[in-house]
Amino acid sequence: PAKIVFGRPLDGIADQSYILLQGGDAIGAVSNSVADVFRIQPSELRDTRLFSELPGRVRRFHIYSGDLLYVLTQTNSLWRLEAPVSDVADQAVVKDTVERLLRLDAESVDDSSSDGPPHTDSGERLPVSYVELFTEQGETRLMIAPDDREGKFLRVTFTNATTVFRVASSNVPSALVSSAGLLGLRDKTVLALQAESLRRITLKWERGGAEAVEREAKAAVWRLGEGVSGRLVPERLSALLALLEALKADRIEKLGLTAGDQDAYGLRVPWLEVSVDVDAADTVRKTVLVGKEAGFGKRYAMVRGLDVLFVLSGEMVAGLSAHLVETL
Q: What are the CA-CA distances from residue 205 to residues 59, 110, 321 (Å)?
């Protein structure tokens, strides 16, 4: 094979470097732009992408974060949360998480060892998370850990491999690096009811007082419930009906509520209770409990029988708590 050796820059000619030609008996000179092409490190020639897998081939993935395990599975292009609770997944968030993970491109790659690339601090790097991806072709496992004190980069290593991929933190999906991101994998829908199926709505306030409106099946006109007096405000009722059709939380605060959580978040004796009777074979009543303030006008909330703690925006809270009846 041909062998060419590049040397130092020429004396007095800074833009050229010495070169030992094939055979070793002649010395020449080439432009530094040519020499620089051959001075790259082997690691600079390698593919910096972490994956070659297509998002659609991922059928299941696990995220281990501390003591928590999140499991998501895909069936017929629909994702579902299997752990820590069996629940509905946010399709857009889960798909974005998988796609961004598989698109990750390293800023630098170190094949020498897993102790870390050069120019990083030497402090202990506790893993942020472990991730497992499952496809028809097999399983891939990786670990994500901090890389620098400023948090600008993360290091990714794969099982049984010493290669360290250094990636920008901003490119890593939040579900893989934060508890808030993990909770965001759950669908934020609190209620999704067809307005025409609603038959009765009851509002109860902690400070006292209750209102109820109802209508007959297939009837268009709403009336005040038994024992309620005053004037029904159509505009407020219409706004509430629209809200109940697609009530979305600002965020998910917790999955797997306990009895103690209900006290802690003001849900055992709620600030507001909204009960909705629905004309459907599989649903009799849905009740939303609105509890303590969560800051900036937001409040904690849950659906009775569902162990998910939501945080409602100030706008949602105002819409749910608006009085439907005015006194005469």
A: 45, 61, 8
